[in-house]
Amino acid sequence: MVADLSANPAFPPEPLPATVPGTPAAEAAGARLAPQLFALAAATDAVGGFPTQEFDLLRAAGLLTATLPADLGGAGLDTPAATGPLLELLRHIGRGNLAVGRIYEGHLNALLLIQQFGSAAQVARAAADARAGHLFGVWNTENPAQGVQLEALPDGRYRLHGAKTFASGAGHVSRPLITGALPEGQGWQLFVLDAEAQPPVLDRSFWRPLGMRASASFRADLAELELAADALIGPANEYYRQPWFSGGAIRFAAVQLGGAEAVFDETRRFLRSLGRLDDPYQRQRLGEMAILLESGRHWLRGAAQQAAAQAPAEATVAYANMTRTAIETICLDMLRLAERCVGARGLLQPEPFERLHRDLTHYLRQPAPDAALADVGRFVLEHAEPANQLW
């Protein structure tokens, strides 16, 4: 679990200036950290591993509070206008280490959801925890037959039953934001668990992945843990409100694109090491890869503009679904081209490309990709505006 690092001289806090919403300070810090994250990644690339040192670096850089407003000690990346710098920050972290990016995106997502749906007291408490170095996360996935349920107790508290799967950062995330079913069909409820005071039982055997080994996405059994009423965040079913539920896909897409950038950089490094700079076919593939990356950056810029414009929820969700679909395709094409560039030699350990390929392939498997694309089709069919006026 995460201890309070605020007084630890090894990791002195470095608050990021945030006098203007959308300040690039956090983005610049992410860019500076990306090479360090990349250099450390191989050491934790094992089932059950966790990038502890990497998150110490994020804490020291003040990045655990990036999506808090300035008056709560953050960098102000909590507003729609700050979506661009936020996506760039996530892209840099993904370029450094996709496992770190996966957990970090969940941490920022949890803080944003608490700010969106929580009370002022709950937001203040979460901000204090983030400043103290605690990791947040969002645990939503579950086996329907063993899903999380809240049992109401006579004293106003709740007892938990069931488990979550793919609980990223389990054992290290000390403030997971979790979904569960309220009694008597009252709905789907968000709540924060103090996982230090009440640690869930972890099934580490659940996590035997192709990639993202160091994200520690175990099965977390919450049975018999209890919550106070003030641990519940917002009314029932708020988690699925749009555009926040589907619109957040642009954040994991930003992390994925960062991973594709790392693939690109490693492919070039590998070809240089072999002296393959004059091969016309390698040049052609690298040209295609450069086009793909720039296309991905344009998608992130478009998504940021859409969020900043605060368009109607339906349009925001459709654009987010386009962005995640386009970046998934870009990443898959990047992997295909890179494989042909590096050949069998480049796929051998300890070449970084072997790990990058596994991690990106696994991370691209996000929920409901077909439904996301079908939603885009539904939106454009139901709107009669000319194509240049849809967004």
UniProtKB/TrEMBL annotation:
GO terms assigned for molecular function: oxidoreductase activity
Cofactors: FAD
Acyl-CoA dehydrogenase/oxidase C-terminal domain segment(s): 248-360
Enzyme Commission designation: 1.-.-.-
Enzyme class: oxidoreductase
Keyword Transport recorded: no
Entry-linked InterPro entries: Acyl-CoA_dehydrogenase (IPR050741), Acyl-CoA_Oxase/DH_mid-dom_sf (IPR046373), AcylCo_DH-like_C (IPR036250), AcylCo_DH/oxidase_C (IPR009075), AcylCoA_DH/ox_N (IPR013786), AcylCoA_DH/ox_N_sf (IPR037069), AcylCoA_DH/oxidase_NM_dom_sf (IPR009100)
Region span, Disordered: 1-23
Pfam families linked: Acyl-CoA_dh_1, Acyl-CoA_dh_N
Boundaries of every Acyl-CoA dehydrogenase/oxidase N-terminal domain copy: 39-125
Gene3D superfamilies: Acyl-CoA dehydrogenase/oxidase, N-terminal domain, Butyryl-CoA Dehydrogenase, subunit A, domain 2, Butyryl-CoA Dehydrogenase, subunit A, domain 3
Alphabetized UniProt keyword annotations: FAD, Flavoprotein, Oxidoreductase
Taxonomy, superkingdom: Bacteria
Family: Belongs to the acyl-CoA dehydrogenase family.
PANTHER family reported for this sequence: DEHYDROGENASE, PUTATIVE-RELATED, MEDIUM-CHAIN SPECIFIC ACYL-COA DEHYDROGENASE, MITOCHONDRIAL-RELATED
Protein name: Acyl-CoA dehydrogenase family protein
Organism: Hymenobacter aranciens
Lineage summary: Bacteria, Pseudomonadati, Bacteroidota, Cytophagia, Cytophagales
